From TrEMBL:
UniProt name for this protein: Sad1 / UNC-like protein
Keywords for the protein's UniProt record, in alphabetical order: Membrane, Transmembrane, Transmembrane helix
Domain of life where this protein originates: Eukaryota
Keyword Aminoacyl-tRNA synthetase: no
UniProt main location, coarse: membrane
Residue span(s) of domain SUN: 117-274
Originating species: Ancylostoma caninum
Alphabetized InterPro entries for the sequence: SUN1-5, SUN_dom
Gene3D superfamilies named in the record: Galactose-binding domain-like (2.60.120.260)
PANTHER family listed in its UniProt record: SAD1/UNC-84-LIKE PROTEIN-RELATED, SUN DOMAIN-CONTAINING PROTEIN 1
């Protein structure tokens, strides 16, 4: 009986070893399957990450391209706005300048008005250009035509022939004013023109105050250009830089014209603000 029990115990031990061995095999198999599952899941996750990274790269490129396009549009819009602002500012300044000139003109007195007693000092004024007509030249030699007076004669409409012209681009026009006072500005009006300035028109001229009636001593009141404003029309004003000096005689010294062999002066006003 003891022998039988030992045999039974031995068999039981063998069965236990076998069961334990099978359990180890099952555990190892299960662990291996889990490792393979984790590895497969990791590979799937890595593949998913790679796909997402590729998609994100594409989206970033698209966004970057769109942002660049938007930025370029913003820059272009800002340039247009800046250009429009400068244009409006220029128009506003021109409008303000024109309005200011009109206001000053409406409150100005013409010190060179012949109707008030002003006159041209002939012997201190350039000789009028000789006419191409032989008859007019002969008449002018016997009875000199005082065409220089046209330069200060007020009129509502200026005709092309109504001008004081002298040879060359340099000359003088001396005016005895009807009052001894300060000179604020000089306004020159040429025959009507638009866009293109007539080549006989003055370009640069200086306004001098005569300290005596022979203009032996002169003081510069202002340096002027005509036209001073592009597309400003035939009548344009030049304000004096020196407005503190009083005088009753001015000498306008023409320095340059716009290219003609002679210079024509249509209407010159010497202004003082009231």
């Amino acid at each position: 009986m003891e022998k039988a029990m030992r045999v039974s115990i031995a068999e039981l031990r063998e069965d236990m070893k076998k069961a334990i061995s099978e359990l180890h095999i099952e555990v190892e198999k299960h662990g291996k399957e889990q490792d393979e599952g984790v590895k497969a899941a990791a590979e799937k996750l890595s593949s998913f990450h790679n796909q997402m990274a590729d998609k994100l790269t594409v989206v970033e490129k698209q966004l970057s391209s769109r942002l660049s396009e938007v930025e370029s549009r913003i820059v272009a819009a800002n340039e247009r706005i800046r250009g429009l602002g400068m244009s409006l500012k220029g128009r506003s300044l021109n409008g303000t300048s024109e309005a200011s000139a009109e206001m000053k003109r409406s409150h100005a007195v013409n010190l060179a008005s012949r109707s008030h007693g002003a006159f041209v000092v002939s012997h201190l004024t350039s000789k009028a250009a000789s006419s191409s007509s032989v008859l007019l030249s002969l008449v002018d030699s016997v009875f000199p035509l005082e065409t220089y007076n046209i330069a200060i004669t007020e009129r509502t409409h200026i005709n092309p022939s109504e001008a004081f012209c002298f040879d060359g681009s340099e000359g003088t026009l001396t005016i005895r004013l009807w009052a001894n006072t300060t000179v604020a500005a000089v306004e020159y009006e040429h025959d009507y023109w638009r866009d293109v300035v007539p080549i006989s028109a003055p370009d640069r001229y200086d306004v001098m105050a005569c300290m005596d009636h022979e203009c032996g001593e002169t003081i510069l009141l202002g340096e002027c250009r005509y036209p001073s404003v592009e597309n400003g029309g035939p009548a344009q004003m030049c304000e004096m830089q020196n407005r503190s000096l009083t005088t009753d005689q001015v000498q306008v010294v023409f320095r340059k014209n716009h290219g003609q062999q002679y210079t024509c002066v249509y209407l010159l006003r010497v202004l003082n603000w009231m």
